[in-house]
Amino acid sequence: MKLYHSISSPNSRRVRMLLAEKCLHLPLVPIDLGRGEQHSDEYQAINPRRVVPTLVLDDGTAIGEVPVISRYLDDTQPAPFLFGATDEEKALTAMWERRIEQEGFASVMEAIRNRAPGLENRAIAGPHDYAQISELVERGKQRVKNLFADIDARLASSTYVAGEQFSVADITLLVTVDFAAKAIDVVVTDEYPALQRWYAVVSTRPSALA
Hints:
210 residues, single chain, alpha+beta
């Protein structure tokens, strides 16, 4: 297997963190998003959506979309299992990861892609062009702040997002927090003490620092 990724892509970082947590070492094939390599004929043949990351299996099968790649690796590779071990853990992990991705990660993406000058008519990643909508910038920021408040309440009674074990939900949240701070200047303030406690722990994991 090999992973097509970009060092600047938060989505790619999510998969790289999962690989590090599971001590998996795959060949990494860099795609330069700044130079538009994702739009090349060669890469489109691998992933027609022109986004990263993409996992290519030994037989040439290409798997896109971060949750799907992550689930495949968790199902087929050795423990630790990052989607949970029991049915209940799996359900809670999937629920929280979906909330974080939809309400947090996608909201940061919405805010940055609707304001960046270099993304005019590219407000949504993928093969189709979409005009920027300036009103979505502030809405995206507010959605991220709302998620931080909701997660802070959750972490007030839970060590990690989905329970007492580190999971893929924590990976997605960490990448979202760092992405929000860097891309749209929305940071975890003292208003969210439980989230700050969680971040201090999770951001020092080897997978987060790699």
